[in-house]
Amino acid sequence: MNLVWKFGMCLYSDGRYNEAEVSFMEVAKRREKVLGAEHPSTLTGMANLASTYRNQGRWKEAEELEVQVMETFKRVLGEEHPETLTSTANLASTYRNQGRWKEAEELEVQVMETFKRVLGEEHPDTLTSTANLASTYRNQGRWKEAEELDVQVMEARKRVLVEEHPETLTSTANLALTYRNQGRLKEAEELHVQVMETRKRVLGEEHPSTLSSTANLASTYRNQERWKEAEELDVQVMETFKRVLGEEHPSTLTSMANLAFTFQFQGRNGEAISLMEKCFQLRKRVLGRQHPYTEKSLEALNEWQIENVETL
Predict the structure, then answer these.
(1) CATH, range 1-99
(2) Which of 74, 115, 69, 76 is nearest to 91 (CA)?
(3) Residues in the chain, pLDDT under 50
(4) Which pLDDT score is estimated for 57?
(5) From 1.10.10, 1.25.40, 3.30.70, 3.40.1090, which CATH number describes the 245-311 domain?
(6) Reported pTM
(7) pLDDT the model gives residue 1
(8) HEC profile of 156-196
(9) InterPro entries, from UniProt (predicted)?
């Protein structure tokens, strides 16, 4: 059973969510049979399965499992047990991915406050839950509230984990996103460069986190209409993701879509349409036709094709 779980985790890490689902389904069923439906390991197996649903954009199936896991953990381990709180945070993430901000926010505040009380204000789990709440504020355009929490998390992680710790860098990148969304592009750029350079030094040039920070910097250049600099980084990120993770990995496909947008903003419609067509077809195969990223690719593709016909 452990081997099947490890295999599922490898598939999940590769972004092969459909295949990971099969492994996690098998693990969950076996654990239920051997350990019982309410055993913590069975519930963790169900949470893993729900995560594959979430990453495929199958929100309703993810939500159904996550509610079941959360309610069972509450009954078996108690409302304030870390496993219960983690399962509540997972459900909040599913709400956030559906744009159900108020429901997500309600759960995230609950998780954050409980972690503060049970584990302390600067415990890593408390800081992660605070960062999740900041993300929900950011998605609602509540920039000042997001910024306040982002700064709080970043400073605490610097103090607790040191400046170059991966989680500290993630919180710095989150603050940069909040700046970018407010149009504070120079401040965003400064932080994105700092995160990128530190990740290169600490994790290596081809680490997925380094590539994500490079993509964030490219996006900031795009917002400043610095097309050539954006394109140079977008190409670098896409080609490296292809080599490191494979052409069909979700992160590779995201970088492909980013480059397509950079082409489109420069009026290079043919190249943009061609690349987005490829991105759409791959996302349809890997993530499914109904996944939000697949639908966004198709929406952009249709819009560009119409514009291209009108300008002929």
Answers:
(1) 1.25.40.10
(2) 69
(3) none
(4) 78
(5) 1.25.40
(6) 0.84
(7) 63
(8) HHHHHHCCCCHHHHHHHHHHHHHHHHCCCHHHHHHHHHHHH
(9) NLR-like, TPR-like_helical_dom_sf
Looking at residue 288, what is its pLDDT? Answer: 83
Would you list the domain boundaries of the chain?
Answer: 1-99, 245-311
Report the alpha-carbon distance of residue 21 to residue 11 in Å, rounded.
9
Q: What is the pLDDT of residue 97?
A: 83
Confidence at residue 312, expressed as pLDDT on a 0 to 100 scale: 58
